[in-house]
Amino acid sequence: MGQMLFSNIGKGHMRVLQYLVKIRGLDFTISDVARNTEMTRATLYKVWKDLVKLGVIIKTRQIGVAKLYKLNEENKITQALVSLYKVLLIKMIEGIEEKIGSNNKSKEIILEN
């Protein structure tokens, strides 16, 4: 399983995973993911197959012909990705705070907007 993850992972996988981590907890369709990641459906279906096989994505329900999925937050890979996302987000916020603290004019501009 780990071998497949690291030998076949590409930009498409990363783009989908980044989007799914951001919207974790919400149901989505394959069309939602295609639209929001700006990927073709053909490319997305290849990526999708891998992520379902890894257990990162699970089907939650079906409404008419629309199949809904969500990020499997009980999956170890997903948990690691969410943890990494949180750490990176904290570092980004710290960097912004550092810039604001060193330049009072920047802080005023940000606060106005």
Secondary structure blueprint with pairings:
Elements: H1 2-8, H2 11-22, H3 30-37, H4 41-53, E1 57-63, E2 66-71, H5 76-102, H6 104-112
Antiparallel strand pairs: 1-2
What's this, in brief?
The protein has 113 residues and is mainly α. Helices cover 67% and strands 12% of the residues.
Strand coverage percent: 5-15%
Counting H and I runs of at least 4 residues, what is the number of helices? 6
Structure summary, number of beta strands: 2
Structural class: mainly alpha
Report, as a whole number of angstroms, the end-to-end distance.
47 Å
Specify the CATH homologous superfamily.
Winged helix-like DNA-binding domain superfamily/Winged helix DNA-binding domain
CATH third-tier fold name = Arc Repressor Mutant, subunit A
Task: Tally the structural domains.
Answer: 1
Average pLDDT metric: 81
Q: Rg from C-alpha positions?
A: 18 Å
Shape descriptor reads elongated
Q: Strands of the biggest beta sheet: in what spatial order?
A: 1-2
Query: Which runs of at least 5 residues are low in confidence (pLDDT < 50)?
Result: 104-111
CATH structural architecture = Orthogonal Bundle
Task: Tell me the series of helices and strands, N- to C-terminal.
Answer: HHHHEEHH
* CATH class value: Mainly Alpha
Oligomer state equals: single chain
Primary descriptors:
mainly alpha; Arc Repressor Mutant, subunit A
Please tell me about this protein's structure:
With 113 residues, the chain is mostly helical. It has a single domain, classed as Winged helix-like DNA-binding domain superfamily/Winged helix DNA-binding domain (Arc Repressor Mutant, subunit A). The protein is 67% helix and 12% strand. The protein is built from six helices and two strands; from the N terminus they run ααααββαα. The protein has a two-stranded antiparallel sheet. A hairpin with a 2-residue loop joins strand 1 and strand 2. Helix 2 packs across helix 5, helix 3 crosses helix 4 and helix 5 packs across helix 6. The radius of gyration is 18 Å and the shape is elongated. The relative contact order is 0.12.
